[in-house]
Amino acid sequence: MNAWLGLLRKELLEISRDKRALISGFGIAFLAPLIIYGGVGFAISQSSSVSPVWIDVTNADRAPGLMETLADAQIFDVADWSGEGDRPTAKLEVIIDEDFAAAIAEGRQTQIILRGDLNDDAVRPVLGRTRDSLRQFSSATAGVRLLMRGIDPRLVQPIQWREQNTAPASNTAGRLTMMIGIYVMMAAFISAISTAVDTSAGERERNVLEMLLIQPVRPFDIVSAKLVGIFLVAMLGVLLTLTLSALAMGQVELEKVGMTFSLEPLNFVLILVVMLPLALLAGSINLWVGYLSKTFKEAQSQVAMVMLIPALGPMTLMFVPEPPDLLRQMPVTGQFMFLEQMLKAESVVVQEPIVASLLTLVLVLVFAWLASRYLASERSIDAL
Amino acid sequence: MIIASDLTKRFGAIRALDGATFSAEDGQITGILGPNGAGKTTLLRIVYGLLQPDSGGVTLGGVDVGLNPVAAKKQMGVFPDRLGTYERLSTREVIHYFASLHGLDAKQRTAAIDRLVSELDLSEIIDRRTKGFSQGQRMKVGLAASLVHSPQHILLDEPSRGLDVMATRILRDYLKAQRAAGRCVVFSSHVMQEVAALCDKVVIVARGRVVAEGTTAALCELAGEPNLEDAFVKIIGTTEGIAS
Description:
A: mainly alpha, 2 domains, 4 strands, about 5% strand
């Protein structure tokens, strides 16, 4: 026990003094809240406010009523631009028929052409808003025509629909806050990469591995002590990422889109508990790949590549509307789906994260055993 | 006492050891002498249990290194071929670390550190981090880490490589003190003067085999040469890979 504690003590001392590894490891923890605050905040401000857009209108003078309707929707003709600086670029061309005024007055049908690169992501919102305004103007004009003929306009509108969103605010916010889930998962896998590479391939490159292997300690003791050190760094990364992301989420003006966000203390703790085996898994994979690599640089690139594989799982799940239930019991996807439920304040089937955690721990043992076996082999000295 | 019997080891097509046999007594310094590439490091790595021989075996204080490596490692202090340092740790922390690995408790660790500070004159560097240490200072830290548990068997693989005159003298004096304390000291080298000045017994290794062993005088007599260098050249049959 003395020997194992000695191994752990040395790992913790070295880790605490390796500022470069810690700074790079915890980068995601400090980056995540910035992205959440900046990115989500920007998205909300975009969706909750109507910004003016500019279109190029031909024959605007023939349709003053329509131009008013467009102006009410913050859609303006670039010809009317009177602000300072460069004239804005029109994203859409609206061509009004020369005969527009007469056609409206005489109760005839007239034509408006909307022209532009309609596949362009920047043009589509302008197109949508312009369409809505035209539909509104067309409907109002039709209503007046019908009234003048003594017909109730409701006759041609047999159905009137309204949309009422019954989703709880926390649920809606949960979808938005899934970004936190992604960051927390990434923190578990990425935070300790530098530390793991330093303590595996780095030790060999610094010529201290041979000295260590000569000591009367079992390779598994060496691996397990290193694993605990790496695990602590990964969990610190998870804790920081979760805390700072949740704090950043609290600063975003979610109420502007009718949402709220709160992470209950119990859910916060449960997320950390579920991330424990995942941090161990990340550490064990990091160590094994670190030892297999021939050089420190090779270890850095290989570990980063390998870590992308489990990190991709949650990202893929974001695009699967109804993932199979079995994935709730699998390592990585199970933890991610649990996180999703916690952040959305949904009820959880307790057995699922437990099974996922146990299977994750089995994988941890497999990778730790592989790393130990490698250390016990002659190849470990020269990475042959 | 260390007994290595009929050791063979291949690395792919290369035969690194080809039936090497030697013994080293307690209270003596035994030098493993050979040109570069003769198999000295492989031989020592098998003795200290880092490599497994293809055939043959090693006993150390009566313990079979292959069968009971942990018990054997407790009886040996090793200064390996590649000796790096833990640059983020101080000398005290490095020695503390290796003392822990040998199961020394807090009291024993403190006593061992105090003893090594005195024996190896570590007082100036004991609380300094090892980053930027000179070769001589690194050698001292390595020796302290290797010998913190006062092992009966001391194995050193070219320990004087890169050392200046003063550091070499400190090393020699320390090894002589260990011999005087009845320890079994084995070290490899390809430096004639060092071996001649220090060793009670010389084991000459060439092409993976022990080609001769005995005292310096006995080897000179065997080769019919007046000094160890000439005797060595005659015994191995080449001057390649030898430093005087």
